[in-house]
Design goal:
This protein has helices at about 1-20, 20-30, 35-50, 55-70, 75-90, 95-110, 115-130. The chain has about 130 residues and is mainly α. The chain is globular. The chain starts with a helix and ends with a helix.
Amino acid sequence: MKKLFICLIGFCTHYSSLANPGADSLLVAFHQAEGMDKQVILLQLGAFYAADSFDLALGFITEAKNMAEEKGEQRHLAYACMAEGNLWEQYAEFASDNRKALQPFLQAKFPRLHDAVCLAQSSFAIARLYAV
């Protein structure tokens, strides 16, 4: 299943990477990376494509989140949750979108994830969403 997803990522991003040469270097780095380095590159790909394609960016972030959960890497999971919340917030148009953004921020804030930076950032993001 993972190999299928990786092939799908390569296929889906091939045409868009022709217009965005920065994506090529990230994809090459992804294929050469090992372990949780792949998760970091998936988050970078999600951030790279966030401005152009919500679905593509969410796919990268979701895969990074799943990878962190499988490996039990709580810190990496916190960063993936933050990336997902930021993506939902970036595309928020209605109150329901803000609620969708709130959930990953709340997950990133859980003390069990043991990351002070994510705790602070998610707290600010939650306050920002409640202010809206």
